[in-house]
Design goal:
Length: 506
């Protein structure tokens, strides 16, 4: 008998409607030629700006617009991009040493509080308000608020939108008369169903689930994608990492323990060597047709239509699975999801889509000269404007994912990029449902987030997956590490940053 998780259908529809109706979209976006003509009115002759950011793919995609910008404005743009693992320290060194070698900084918003604290970035609020070409109101409210804004001030212009979603082989599930997973138990059940089956017709056994788990990479994103639905149930402002009153970490309780169990169990249905798989490894396996399920940013959706893909029009997207139990923060125990414990749940399932990384934004160094700041802002605006970005987000190799309302409400550009109309609707529907969930879980955005996640959580998760430590030891090590780091950073100051990042009164 066909299992039915009808809440998903409702969730997807609601998400699309919410995105599509949030404002009236202009019928036409400026053509590149019109945009270039407008840009030529700004001249930055003999002005050189230096840009840093992620080397690949974000930096490469950003750099691809350099020639047109330079020809139109007379500016000279120099890129000094670095791998992701080096980017945080590269940016930090620029403001802690006061060297200020970078005029444009392309950064994930999870590091914004560090830069605000250091007074590193220029307040762009007035520039944004005066910049009609940017079409700020076309940027979804979520990314307006969390993509580069701190408090009431805008410090970065979004160029990408990131959040983890579920990707599944729609052809396989439909053929087997199985609905996409509504809960993490469903996820594991479906992964088991397809594990060691030939999923791409090459005669070899394939895998039920493929996730990123390499240490010192970004493996914690997959873990928090699972943990969020157990830890956060009362809306985005509740937060999923700390108690907002005490800054006590939510990392040693029954909910966290359950998330660790699920995370480890996914490995039963993963490929050999998954503990060393990078994000690119997981994506490659999925687009090769070798995985039934995966969790990822929007990148996988556009990568499924590249020429090498074996899964064109065979993939659908949905919000992350959820949990039928949620954390009681007073007792530390799991309780049933009902209208009181998870008011945004649907039919007893709590969903907490995880905004991993939140995306990429670009800001301007406050210490750069006025001429460099003007040129830097013009370059950022140029790349983010719809004429560029609405095409960029449809190309998998750019690393740019949808963050504008027009990108989510108009399927035509996606069809032109190679998606079928059906696939485009499934992809954008999953995104819309995630972004419009009132319980979406924000990634951790406080000073020194890098140490909390990469140095403490990542290291501990790696040891747990390799069975070097027990589940209880993992929870204790993360909790003790976070408590110590919070005290070192200043508990009250960290609380202020945490509450502000959630949109709460500090």
């Amino acid at each position: 008998m066909r299992r039915s998780f009808s809440p998903y259908a409702r969730f997807l529809i609601i998400g699309l409607l919410a995105v599509g109706c949030s404002r009236t979209i202009k019928s036409e976006t400026p053509s590149p030629s019109t945009q270039t003509e407008a840009l030529q009115q700004q001249r930055f002759d003999d002005v050189t700006i230096t840009v840093t950011g992620l080397k690949y793919p974000i930096g490469n995609a950003f750099e691809s617009h350099t020639k047109a910008f330079e020809e139109a404005t007379g500016a000279n743009v120099v890129f000094e991009t670095v791998p992701f693992g080096d980017l945080y320290e590269t940016i930090k060194a620029d403001y802690t040493t006061e060297e200020n070698r970078y005029d444009v900084v392309i950064y994930p918003p999870i590091w914004l509080s560090d830069m605000v604290k250091a007074n590193y970035l220029s307040d762009l609020t007035s520039k944004v308000q005066a910049d009609s070409a940017l079409e700020w109101e076309d940027i979804t409210p979520f990314f307006q608020e969390h993509g580069g804004t701190y408090g009431d001030n805008i410090y970065g212009i979004p160029v990408d939108g990131d959040y983890y979603m579920l990707y599944y082989r729609s052809d396989l599930l439909e053929a087997a008369d199985i609905e996409p997973p509504s809960t993490w138990d469903d996820y594991l059940e479906i992964a088991e169903t397809f594990h060691e089956k030939d999923l791409n017709g090459d005669g070899e056994a394939d895998y039920g689930s493929c996730l990123t788990k390499q240490p010192n990479h970004v493996s914690w994103w997959a873990f928090w994608s699972i943990a969020g639905s157990f830890l956060q149930s009362e809306g985005t402002q509740q937060g999923g990492f700390f108690d907002t009153e005490t800054m006590k970490p939510l990392t040693n309780n029954a909910a966290f323990a359950k998330a660790l169990e699920v995370y480890k169990a996914t490995g039963n249905y993963g490929p050999p060597g998954e503990l060393n798989h990078t994000m690119d490894d997981a994506r490659e396996l999925f687009i090769d047709g070798r995985c039934a399920l995966t969790l990822d940013h929007g990148n996988t959706g556009t990568l499924t239509i590249i020429p090498e893909s074996k899964v064109v029009d065979k993939v659908a997207t949905a919000p992350l699975p959820g949990s039928t139990e949620v954390l009681n923060r007073e007792t530390g125990e799991l309780v049933a999801c009902d209208k009181f414990t998870c008011p945004f749940g649907i039919n007893g399932v709590n969903h907490a889509p995880y905004a991993a990384l939140i995306g990429w934004s670009a800001g301007v160094n406050a210490a750069s000269s006025p001429e460099q700041q003007a040129a830097a802002y013009a370059f950022i605006s140029y790349v983010s404007q719809p004429a560029q970005s609405n095409v960029d987000v449809t190309i998998g190799e750019t690393g740019f994912n949808p963050y504008r309302i027009s990108q989510l409400s108009d399927t035509q550009s996606w069809v032109e990029a190679g998606m079928s109309s059906s696939a485009a609707n499934k992809y954008l529907g999953g995104i819309g449902a995630s972004l419009n969930n009132p319980n979406i879980m924000l990634d951790l955005t406080i000073p020194n987030e890098h140490s909390y996640q990469q140095e403490i959580v990542d290291t501990t998760l790696a040891a747990f997956l390799r069975e070097e430590i027990s589940r209880e030891q993992a929870m204790e090590e993360i909790t003790d590490g976070w408590e110590k780091l919070t005290d070192e950073m200043g508990r009250e100051e960290q609380k202020t940053f945490y509450r502000t990042s959630l949109g709460m009164t500090p």
